[in-house]
Amino acid sequence: YLILIPISLLPFFMLHGISRILYFTIYYLIGYRKKVVRENIYNSFPQKNELERILLAKKFYNQLCDVILESIKIFTISKKHLSKHINCINPEVINKYYEQGKNVIIAVGHCNSWELMLTGIDSFIKHKAVVIYQPLSNQYLDKKLIEARSKQGTVMLPAKNVKSFYNMPSEHLHATVFAIDQAPSDPTKCYWMKFLNQDTPVLFGTERYAKEYDLPVLYARLNKLKRGYYTLEFVEVVVNAAATEYGEITERVTQLLEKDILKYPEFWLWSHKRWKHKRTTTAS
């Protein structure tokens, strides 16, 4: 943590300079999760040849290093400075529900600089942003990350407390943010569908709470303009969640994410062990 703070104070152009060194280190010297990345890309894009897969992997590692350094920036970045790097292009899509007195759910994926986006999302909308997260085993670092992610207004909510959160009265209308592309801990308690050419278990929380509390669902897309600069775009997915069929919401938001990945595959988190479970297995 004492190392991260001085790095966080550096301007973006210097962080991106360090990113080039980090890329060489983790790709060529360490080989960080190369096997996982190559396997994920191979299974997702069987139509690509070997050279295309290698080039995609290299682009991903370049992007990953940028994201790592930009994520460190959340420890010290101000709201004003962050607004120069992320611009919300259509806040009216979500703010109309605030005017209607409705809570909402936002589905997100691990594309581009998601830490910057989640840190600043409360500034872009009228709702109180509540981000669902899994606490780290290192309690000290977990505390510091919560402080960094929360300093601009975003509320961090442990996944185990989501149910009680929804059942408690709130002073503010809230927009609850669910990550939809993490691997479920228990593959028997999720929704299975085709995603990136593979049979995939998908977390069901977004749909579960949307249907139970009849909440509108939106998808948040983070578009990259250039290094360190992004636009946040909201896509309306479901207005009347309670009226949807089983699996409909999960399919819709996951397909939106898949569309973004297919358009710019290097911007997604390929180093994640997304397909460690098979449909016939139980949770490890």
Using brief descriptors, characterize the structure shown.
alpha/beta; single chain; globular; 284 residues
Task: Explain what this protein looks like in three dimensions.
With 284 residues, the chain is of the alpha/beta class. The protein has helices at residues 4-8, 12-30, 34-44, 50-72, 79-85, 92-99, 114-124, 139-150, 162-167, 205-212, 248-263, and strands at residues 86-88, 104-108, 128-133, 155-158, 174-179, 191-195, 198-202, 217-226, 229-238. A hairpin with a 2-residue loop joins strand 6 (191-195) and strand 7. Helix 2 packs across helix 4. The chain is globular, with a radius of gyration of 19 Å. The model has no long low-confidence stretch (mean pLDDT 95).
- The amount of beta strand, in percent, is 15-25%
Mind summarizing the main beta sheet? 7 strands, mixed
Number of strands: 9
Radius of gyration over C-alpha positions, nearest whole angstrom: 19 Å
Helix tally equals 11
Helix-strand sequence: HHHHHEHEHEHEHEEEHEEH
Helix content: 40-55%
In angstroms, what separates the terminal alpha carbons?
A: 31 Å
Report the structural category: alpha/beta
What sort of overall outline do the alpha carbons produce when their principal axes are compared?
globular
What's the quick description here?
The chain is an alpha/beta fold and 284 residues long.
Write the layout of secondary structure elements.
Blueprint lengths: L3 H5 L3 H19 L3 H11 L5 H23 L6 H7 E3 L3 H8 L4 E5 L5 H11 L3 E6 L5 H12 L4 E4 L3 H6 L6 E6 L11 E5 L2 E5 L2 H8 L4 E10 L2 E10 L9 H16 L21
Parallel strand pairs: 1-9, 2-5, 2-8, 3-4, 3-5
Antiparallel strand pairs: 6-7, 8-9
